[in-house]
Specification:
- By secondary structure, the chain is α/β, with parallel strands linked by helices.
- Helix content is 43%, strand content 17%.
- Helix 1 crosses helix 6 and helix 4 (103-115) runs antiparallel to helix 6 (135-149).
- The chain is globular and about 45 Å long.
């Protein structure tokens, strides 16, 4: 399973042996969720995550028609930025490729960012200041999908859908 969280949409693709079995695009991205549900505290973040779960649920239910994927690969800025936060420094490309992130780690970062004012978020190691406003929203989407799809970790890839990663 490959998941790419963008600004306006989230793509989910299921494949096996180089063949796409299922692919959908949810009209839910970090920027879109920010406009709908700004996050200034943990209660806001919980509402954003609940909204993400509501919007992703039909896609995840459709996936029940297929055998469960053995792994979730996370593409895009939310996932690569979370990996950089795990490393505690700005990182991308091969530095983050293949890094595994647990749901517990992602949950802790989501909670931390939700509780920090924007000025303080901009100082979190590994989180580029330009991403500070969107990151809790991207994590809300990622955590909602992981819960609905029953994944306890993601494997980060710096590749994109344009690379034909699957």
């Amino acid at each position: 399973m490959v998941m790419d969280i963008g600004g306006g949409s989230t793509e989910l693709t299921l494949g096996e042996k180089g063949h796409v079995l299922w692919a959908e695009s949810a009209q839910l991205g970090a920027s879109r969720l920010l406009k709908e549900q700004p996050i200034a505290c943990l209660a806001d973040a919980q509402r954003a995550r609940a909204r993400a779960e509501t919007l992703l649920r039909p896609f995840c239910q459709a996936l029940r028609a297929y055998p469960p994927a053995p792994a979730l690969i996370g593409l895009g800025g939310t996932c690569t930025t979370a990996a950089a936060m795990r490393l505690g420094r700005e990182a991308h490309g091969e530095t983050v490729e293949g890094l595994r992130l647990s749901r517990d780690f992602l949950q802790a970062q989501w909670t931390l960012l939700a509780e920090l004012p924007l000025e303080k978020r901009m100082q979190v190691p590994g989180l580029p200041p330009a991403r500070a406003i969107h990151m809790p929203h991207g994590l809300s989407i990622l955590l909602a999908a992981m819960a609905l799809l029953h994944f306890d970790e993601i494997t980060v890839s710096a590749r994109t859908n344009l690379d034909g990663f699957l």
